[in-house]
């Protein structure tokens, strides 16, 4: 297991949709261990595989002291009638937080390392995390979801900081 370096905005791996996990081998098992160890730090809520340079559909979370992961997640439900518009940040866009509209509740389904079905769901922070990490696997970063004016401000700040 290893704590892996986080890829930063501008790295093409973050904009490339991830491939499904087709074989659960030692490489995938090591990836999950690295995702869990890397997300298990103060201030980290979630981590997608492409954020550590691996283009496979896998992410981990660390919400309220609960660590978890899912392979080949599908976002199957997002509340359409309840939203949250709180500050959101990203390890790949360090130290920049912007109000990002997300569904209050989200549910993903995927598999674990034994190929068994996994369901991860939650409200508020967990719901936000599931949506955020799923977006990463699609090649999206949270700033893509910002309104036009806020996105322009975020991109200007990213350039100013040299991120």
From TrEMBL:
Keywords: Hydrolase, Iron, Metal-binding, Protein biosynthesis. The keyword Methyltransferase does not apply. SUPFAM superfamilies: Peptide deformylase (SSF56420). Fe cation binds at residues 90, 132, 136. It catalyses: N-terminal N-formyl-L-methionyl-[peptide] + H2O = N-terminal L-methionyl-[peptide] + formate. InterPro entries: Peptide_deformylase (IPR023635), Peptide_deformylase_sf (IPR036821). The active site is at residue 133. Its EC number is 3.5.1.88. Binds 1 Fe(2+) ion. Its cofactor is Fe(2+). One of its GO terms (molecular function) is peptide deformylase activity. Belongs to the polypeptide deformylase family. Removes the formyl group from the N-terminal Met of newly synthesized proteins. Requires at least a dipeptide for an efficient rate of reaction. N-terminal L-methionine is a prerequisite for activity but the enzyme has broad specificity at other positions. This is Peptide deformylase.
């Amino acid at each position: 297991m290893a704590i892996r370096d986080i890829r930063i905005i501008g790295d093409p791996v973050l904009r490339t949709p991830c491939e499904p996990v087709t074989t659960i081998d030692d490489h995938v098992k090591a990836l999950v261990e690295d995702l869990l160890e890397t997300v298990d730090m103060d201030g980290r809520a979630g981590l997608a595989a492409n954020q550590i340079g691996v283009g496979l559909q896998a992410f981990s979370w660390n919400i309220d002291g609960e660590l978890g992961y899912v392979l080949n997640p599908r976002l199957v439900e997002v509340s359409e009638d309840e939203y949250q518009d709180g500050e959101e940040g990203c390890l790949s866009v360090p130290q920049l937080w912007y109000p990002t509209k997300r569904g209050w509740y989200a549910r993903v389904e995927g598999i674990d390392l034994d190929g068994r079905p996994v369901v991860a769901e939650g409200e508020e922070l967990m719901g936000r995390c599931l949506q955020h990490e799923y977006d990463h696997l699609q090649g999206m970063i949270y700033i893509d979801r910002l309104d036009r004016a806020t996105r322009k401000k975020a991109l200007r700040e990213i350039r100013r900081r040299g991120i």
